[in-house]
Every structure is written in structure tokens, then in C-alpha cells.
Amino acid sequence: MTTKISELLDAAARGAVPVVRGVRDDRLGEPTPCAEYAVRDLLNHLFHVVIGFQSLAAKQSADFTTTPDYLSGDWRARFEEETTRLVAAWAAPGADEGVSGGMNLPAETVGSMALLDLTVHPWDLARATGQDFAPDLASLRSLEALVERMGPTAREMKVFGEPFPLAVGASDFAALLAAVGRDPQWAPDRVA
Q1: Residue span of the structural domain in which 87 resides
Q2: What is the pLDDT of residues 44-54, one digit of tens each?
Q3: DSSP characters for 91-122?
Q4: What φ, ψ does residue 38 adopt, rounded to 5°?
Q5: What does the pLDDT look like over 113-136, one tens digit per residue?
Q6: Coil/strand/helix, residue 5
Q7: Under 8 Å CB-to-CB from 94, ≥6 apart: which residues?
Q8: Can you give the pTM of this predicted structure?
Q9: The domain that contains 173 carries what CATH number?
Q10: How many separate domains does the chain show?
Q11: Which residue from 60, 62, 80 is spatially nearest to 70, judged by alpha carbons?
Q12: Phi–psi pair at 92, nearest 5 degrees
């Protein structure tokens, strides 16, 4: 039986929300494994993805050319509210069928792209801020297939980094992280 993308997004959101809630204000300037982003930048990016992919689920377009600053007021609670909206948007009848909004890709692929961000970026944030994070294991197989299929294009577009060398016996999640260009052993004290 195939798991619906909305169910996978719901499980990923349940893992991401505690990490976002656990980011202290004094950590917003810290580096992350996603080298071009400090914690604040990565939080804004993840917020923007969660909001933009709600529109894509409804077959509308989303603007990813600029990223607003979402970190004002009770942004932690707002992130949880937006992830709930994301899950609901992808649970709507037909959201995962046909072609999605302005991306001109199969809707199921677009939903999986949101799932990838909601799986990898909470790990980035957890590593950067000294928190624990465990991905939803049910999502890993579909994400592995997505990364294998989209990897060359994503690397060409600079969305993924070059694959990171993996240690023998690495976990499935470490393999996914390495495939998108992350060092699965990254730690703030190892930043060059």
C-alpha cells in the first residue's frame, strides 16, 4: 500500500516542529550544514517552502525568487500552523494528481520536494542548534527515489551540493543527507 504524500508530510512536520520550537533566539546567527544559510536564513527558507508549497498543492504558482523574513512575533507557533496548512493542502482531493502550479512537474513529485525540505532542513537546524532529530523512516524510501531521479538537475541548479562521501555502514538517512551534499557528521565545531 502506498502512503499518501499528505501522510508523509504530516509525519515529517511532527518531527520538524519540535526542532523549530527548540531554536533559541541567541542561535539564529549560527552556521548550519547548509553552508549558504545561517540558522535564521534556513528558518526563513523552510518557512517559505512550507507556505509556497501550500499554493503548489492547490495548482497555483509560488514565488521563490525572494524569501521574506518570517521570524517576528510568535514565529515558532506560526511555523506549526503553517505546517498544518501544508498537510491539509496536500490532503485535499486531487492535490497529488496531475501537474502542479508553476513548476510544471507532476504534483506527486512537487509534494515530495516539500517532504525532502521538511526532512533535511530540520536535521540541519538540529545539528546547528544542538538538538536531536530523527527523520520519519517511512519517508526515506520515497525520498531516496526522488533524490536519485532529480539529483543531477538539482545539482546543476545548485539546489543540491555534490554528493558527500559516505562511511561504510552508513544509515539510510546518512545516505540521503550525503546524496544532497551534506556531511552526515557535520557539527558546528567542525565548520571550516
Answers
A1: 5-190
A2: 999 999 999 99
A3: HSTTTTSSB-TTT-SBHHHHHHHHHHHHHHHH
A4: -80, 175
A5: 999 999 999 999 999 999 999 999
A6: helix
A7: none
A8: 0.93
A9: 1.20.120.450
A10: 1
A11: 80
A12: -60, 145
